[in-house]
Design a protein that fits this description.
By secondary structure, the chain is α/β, with parallel strands linked by helices. The chain contains 9 helices and 7 strands. Helix 6 links the parallel strand 4 and strand 5. Helix 3 packs across helix 9, helix 4 crosses helix 9 and helix 7 crosses helix 8. It is elongated and about 70 Å long.
Length: 257
């Protein structure tokens, strides 16, 4: 039977907007095959409503409201701490024939800038592979390798590659901090993920200072374009739902208040 973390990744797929639209379209087709045109029309209407919500300012507003709970701080204004903690997940794991690690987000770059600015003397990277990856190292290991390529000394980098979700990130990092006699940390992850990450790190006793690595840019465009149906809109809604569901699940398990 799948473990809890595997289920936590699979079950939300049933309610993510793109998947809901897909299930509704399949049901519409099935109803048409059984000559249930009226029912098919209702189901198709529901699918269009989901697409409409995802492609409306509602989704964008929810997204921005969630991720802007913690605003980015200029590197020079960031406080100094004992360590920089980076939650892995923004590098592309190399697959043959490509062997170089490549950046997808910018958590690693942000951590490099913080270190180069002298904001901490230690860098801890936390994050294993959610699912078994035969022949591959952990996400944190590849992030660590990239930091070394960017000029960060290997001696100051600690790689924690066993954790599989944000809760396990926090527990593992808290243990490492105690072992190294370190207290305060600059926590690096993207702004959308930061509310959940801060809550769970604080819950295990880590003195956290949020340092978001990225935040979505507001683009000025004709307002009518905000209502044009698009898969990008459904992706925006999916991202914020992922975090909201994660927070609810963590509260249900007593991992955060």
């Amino acid at each position: 039977m799948p473990d809890w973390i595997t289920l936590s990744k699979l079950l939300p797929q049933l309610i993510y907007p793109e998947n809901v639209v897909l299930w509704l379209m399949v049901l519409t087709f099935a109803l048409l095959l059984f000559r249930r045109a009226k029912s098919a029309g209702i189901v198709l209407g529901l699918a269009l409503i989901v697409v409409g919500i995802g492609s409306s300012p509602i989704a964008t507003s929810l997204y921005q409201q969630h991720e802007r709970q913690f605003q980015p701080v200029p590197i020079e204004k960031s406080p100094s701490t004992d360590a920089i903690v980076v939650l892995a997940g923004d590098v592309s794991i190399p697959v043959a024939p490509r062997v170089e690690v490549q950046v997808r987000g910018n958590r690693t770059i942000h951590a490099m800038r913080l270190y180069q600015a002298g904001k901490a003397s230690q860098v801890i990277i936390s994050g294993g592979n959610v699912f078994p990856q035969r022949g591959l190292e952990s996400e944190a290991a590849y992030s660590g390798a990239l930091l070394e390529e960017l000029g960060i000394p290997k001696s100051v980098i600690t790689v924690e590659g066993t954790s599989r979700n944000t809760r396990e990130n926090a527990v593992a990092v808290a243990r490492l901090l105690r072992e190294k006699n370190l207290r305060s940390v600059l926590l690096v992850t993207d702004a959308l993920h930061m509310p959940r990450a801060v809550a769970v790190f604080q819950a295990v006793g880590v003195e956290v200072i949020p340092s978001p690595s990225s935040i979505s840019a507001s683009m000025e465009q004709p307002q009518i374009l905000d209502w044009v149906p698009s898969m990008n809109g459904l992706g925006t809604l999916k991202s914020v739902l992922h975090e909201k569901i994660g927070i609810l699940a963590y509260r249900a398990r007593g991992w955060i208040e």
